[in-house]
Amino acid sequence: MGYGLKKVQKIKPLKKIEETDLIFENVHKKKEQALKEETTVLISIDTKDKVLIGPFSRGGKNRIQIKAVDHELTNDCLIPFGILDIKTSTPYFFNFRSKPTSLDLVDCIEEFFREEYANSKQNKLTILLDNGPDNSGIRTIFLKGLVEISKKYKIEIELVYYPPYHSKYNPVERLWARLENIWNGDLLETVDICISYMKNLTWKDIKSVTKLKEVKHEKGLTVDKKEMIELEFQHISRNEKLKKWSLVITP
Fold this sequence. Notes:
Elements: H1 20-36, E1 40-47, E2 51-52, E3 77-85, E4 90-96, H2 102-117, E5 124-130, H3 140-153, E6 156-162, H4 173-183, H5 191-200, E7 202-203, E8 206-207, E9 209-212, H6 225-235, E10 236-239, E11 243-249
Helix pairs in contact: 2-3
């Protein structure tokens, strides 16, 4: 009867959303603006995929014969959160032994700003980032944490997000590539070995600041809907066209 068996076609992953070009225009505009403003701190942030601790090859190669195990059944890992200070070219690594929460990321951002700029003339912090689940433009507990930083240090905080599927353009991603090139071929058998590599990493001849942190906050925390409406009204202004992709937090 003319019928034949056919494979079910897989759904192709979405690689570009409708606002992609508009989001990129906004990123370039905000980045150039921040670079020109003397009182603005410009940083790029991202959380790296977990690094397994143990004698695992991770696909790396070395001229010296080193035996690695052929399985990775372990929960022992290191999860780095990176901050790249674009104007000073200084890399920062905050390392966690388990997945950090949104508030842990907020703590790292505050620690960075407090140690480097708390008593300076800088009155604005522009952050380039991906719209991941822990730091997205609609993650209520993340936004509330940044509002607290804004109020505490009396600074304006601008969140500038890259579009989905384009995280490779986020400047901090180059730190992860540099790190992989440095330790590729060696066995990361202990946390100390990983930390040592990060401490020795330089970016444009600037040595990194590397710390080992603990997860301090509970997972799954959210902000009450009524409280979030008040925070949005009082402290958060969004780009009308981009909404969660571009917003400004004020004290």
